[in-house]
Amino acid sequence: MENVGSTSGSGINKYFLKKNLKRDIPSSIVVFLVALPLCLGIALASGAPLFAGLIAGIVGGVVVGAISGSQLSVSGPAAGLTAIVLGAIASLGSYQVFLLAVVLAGAIQMVLGLIKAGTIGNYFPSSVIEGMLAGIGVLLILKQLPHAIGVDKDYFGDEGFFQKDGDNTFSAIVHAVNGLSLAAIIISLLSIAILVFWPKIKKLNTVPAPFLVVILGVGLAMAFQGTSYQLRADQMVNIPLFNGWDEFKNLFSTPDFSAIGNKQVWIVGLTIAVVASLETLLGIEAVDKIDPIKRVTPTNRELVAQGFGNMASGMLGGLPMTSVIVRSSANVNAGGRTKMATIIHGTLLLLSLLFIPKLINMIPLACLAAVLLVTGYKLTRISLFKHMYHKGWDQFVPFVVTVLAVVLTDLLKGVAIGMAFSIFYLLRTNMRNPFFYKVQEEGNKKNIRIKLAEEVSFLNKASIQVLLTNIPKETNVIIDGSNARYIDPDVLETIFNYKHNAYTKGIIVTLEHIKSHYTVPKLNTNIVEKINH
User: Fold this and answer.
1) Contact at 8 Å (CB) between 494 and 461?
2) What positions does the domain SLC26A/SulP transporter occupy (predicted)?
3) Are 223 and 186 in contact (CB under 8 A)?
4) Which one of 348, 363, 378 terminates a domain?
5) 3, 63, 393, 416: most buried by Cβ count inside 10 Å?
6) Same domain, residue pair 349 and 478
7) How many domains does the chain divide into?
8) Chain centroid to CA 249: how far?
9) DSSP assignment of 395-453
10) pTM for this structure?
């Protein structure tokens, strides 16, 4: 396993180790290039000022990145919140009142982290997380194709199947094919070729391929100027421009705290907190899954970091944020190793806004779409589907269902549908494994010994009831609970009722090592405490 930490006694901060910065700096450039149009697109779709998306991206990178315990997660405005934000701004009547709801959402998230609600993230099945990642990969490919060929009315970064422009994911591709832009296609194809083949040339791969792609894109866009193939303004990155410090200060907004007594503000704040927390926990789980070093993010600390970030974003006039899978995946695929990649990307967003907005606005969306197309391919590789298939149907079915549901609905709905299928298989497995039994024959009499498992929950009640009901008449039944540490009260009631009524069928029931009451076993924290100390 690669060491990303500091050496003992060196006194050097682990995030500034030279070997990590060699990976983190190029990766931060990639994430910056991907995040820039996403921040702007999500702000546009949310009905908020474009600058609000950039604020959220900057705060998500610098503030959340510094506080978070994740080394690879990248936070910023999320497509999953656009519908909520758009409706909230309209219903609350002003953007300043909405910002108050964002601040409250952040405070609620911090409380959720402090009461350890982040442990919910431990209950997302692996098959669903893998399906979510693959679904995002498919979605990236489908959603970026129109941008790559130069025709898309939808905003950059949309993840929903049904789009605001009336199209859906598939019809948008059809319409794009009917109005191709030759310049965009050339830029996209050359960009993909560089992204695929450049890293394989060891002598040249010190220069990040995405950085080369941007230089190529800007150069080709300039070459096409003045021709019939010239790229339009909506095919380019579009950072807000300002003249002087006064105009820059006017881009910021502050919350209207006079609306603190408005019930609707609290409802919006709670809604944002819950949705943003769920997306963050899903994002964190997904990033840990694809982390090559397999580090585990402390989820409660992540909720606190996200809460602090949302409070800061709201105070400055920014959108609410979450841990974002697309940006985080781009970070992993670009070779990021520590949180410095996230922090530097946020810094680059700020510096580009302050010093080189005109230069940034010369970048074609087609070359950035190429970066996301390659990222999408890596997330949804064929080998992943083969791997999940070999794990068995109980893993493969929830995986495939999650992929399809994410593509055909949106992230949270897709995961919820995948969870439902995963729970079905979990229930079926639990129903089949609460016990084992042995049948012995002595003359005309059958002896059946039923040995209960270590944990017998309510989920096992149905299968135990079916087994007991089907035991033939004139049988000796021994129900052995010697292995059981816990038996659910409903299951106990079923067993005792069966013993009471079995004599009517000539069945003699003997209970061994079964108590009348069980308490839930407590977690032994002694080992954890020893480790912590």
Assistant:
1) yes
2) 21-390
3) no
4) 363
5) 63
6) no
7) 2
8) 34
9) HHHHHHHHHHHHHHS-HHHHHHHHHHHHHHHHHHHHHH-SEEEEEEEETTEEEEEEEE-
10) 0.84
Range of the domain at 439: 434-512
Query: Residue 161: inside a domain, yes or no?
Result: yes
Q: State whether 350 and 258 are in the same domain.
A: yes
Name residue 439's beta-bridge partners.
Answer: 448
What token pair was written down for 261? 């007594």
Are 40 and 140 in a shared domain? Answer: yes
